[in-house]
Design a protein that fits this description.
It is a single chain. By secondary structure, the protein is of the alpha/beta class. It folds into 2 domains: 65 residues, Orthogonal Bundle (5,6-Dimethylbenzimidazole Phosphoribosyltransferase, Chain: A, domain 1), CATH 1.10.1610; 268 residues, 3-Layer(aba) Sandwich (Rossmann fold), CATH 3.40.50.10210. It is 49% helix and 9% strand. It has 15 helices and 6 strands. Strands 3-2-1-4-5-6 form a 6-stranded parallel β-sheet, sandwiched between helices. Strand 5, helix 12 and strand 6 form a beta-alpha-beta unit. The longest helix has 20 residues. It is globular, with a radius of gyration of 20 Å. It starts with a helix and ends in a 5-residue tail after the last helix. The relative contact order is 0.18.
Length: 351
């Protein structure tokens, strides 16, 4: 049995007893039942994930940023050149990007992984070199990856998250970098959810009307050439996915197998999470939604995984920025459970 198969088989349902105990505690706090909305849902889910209603005062947070390039940029689908991918990784390593600021604010460590950048990167602080290939191939002309590459990238994600958990990580978030990656993400959404391409694709980093038409054309070509199987998520990943998307899907599977919550970021992270959930339906219970991206397909991804966003801030940057902010909301939810007074403690009447 492969590492991927063992990981999927290790994913179990949430602990219903712990969730019930957390709900009882929530209902006994000095507030109307359910009045804190998604914060209460998050508390119950974390209790079910870790298997106990007594939640830790703090969790060791890590944002795993997977980086990879995409051959489909040759179709003119991005407003930025592919050279931006390695340039931004250097920016991350130097602490100059939005994710650096927000990760620090959230008290999270940023852990970068080169799973498929199109050039060799220098040794950089915080960068784990796990390159499977020098980017994907142009999916508009054939499969983006081989099956072996896709599985290897999935297993990179599993290995990375297992190593971080072994070193103490108890809450992980998804982040990514890869010029052109909204195009394969939209393709995956269209295939896996049976959506018209026009409902799945958006402007990504800000392409104009002509750029949007090129994205739609490229995805149509990719689907016509590759005929991905909507019932086989691994086949879809191979044909129209990305190496960093595969790596992040592996992070989801590995974390779920270890009963560690995963904060989903935006559209690309959502595509990776959707692939993971299609491969292992129980994995959806280990996911927490962070924000609702302005990418039109993101809401459909979240709905497909039964996730509620904690924030709506019109963000579309990626990198894990929304997930970093979402981690702060989880901190707040945990504090509600741990620090609010009960009706009995406060001497407040329930009637």
């Amino acid at each position: 049995m492969s590492k991927l198969e063992r990981t999927i088989q290790a994913i179990e349902p949430l602990n219903e007893v712990a969730m019930h105990e957390a709900q009882q505690r929530l209902d006994n706090l000095t507030k109307p039942p359910g009045s804190l909305g998604v914060l209460e849902d998050v508390v119950k889910k974390i209790a079910g994930i870790i298997g106990k209603a007594a939640l830790p005062q703090s969790m060791e947070k890590v944002i795993i940023l997977m980086a990879g390039d995409h051959g489909v940029v040759a179709e003119g689908v991005s407003a930025f050149p592919q050279e931006v991918t390695p340039q931004m990784i250097l920016n991350f390593a130097n602490g100059g990007a939005a994710i650096n600021v927000l990760a620090k604010h959230a008290g999270a460590r940023l852990y970068m992984v080169d799973v498929g950048v199109a050039v060799d990167l220098p040794d950089l602080p915080g960068l784990d070199k796990r390159k499977i290939a020098y980017g994907t191939k142009n999916m508009a002309q054939g499969p983006a990856m081989t099956m072996e590459e896709a599985i290897a990238a999935l297993e990179v994600g599993i290995d990375v998250v297992n190593a971080l958990i072994d070193k103490g990580a108890s809450f992980v978030a998804m982040g990514e970098m890869g010029i052109g990656n909204t195009t394969p993400s939209a393709a995956l959404l269209s295939v896996l959810e049976g959506l018209p391409i026009e409902e799945a694709v958006g402007r990504g980093t800000g392409v104009n009307d002509e750029g949007l038409r090129r994205k739609i054309t490229a995805i149509n070509k990719a689907l016509d050439v590759n005929r991905p199987n909507s019932e086989q998520p691994l086949d879809a990943l191979v044909k129209v996915g990305g190496l960093e998307i595969a790596g992040l899907a592996g992070v989801v599977l590995g974390a779920a197998a270890r009963r560690v919550p995963v904060m989903v970021d935006g559209f690309i992270s959502g595509a990776a999470a959707l692939v993971a959930v299609k491969m292992a339906p129980l994995a959806k219970h280990y996911l927490i939604g962070s924000h609702l991206s302005v990418e039109p397909g993101h809401r459909k991804m979240l709905d497909a995984m039964e996730l509620k966003p904690t924030l709506m801030m019109d963000m579309r940057l990626g990198e894990g920025t929304g997930a970093a902010l979402g981690m702060l909301m989880v901190d707040a939810a945990v504090k509600i459970l741990n620090e609010m007074a009960t009706f009995d403690d406060a001497g407040v009447s329930r009637e």
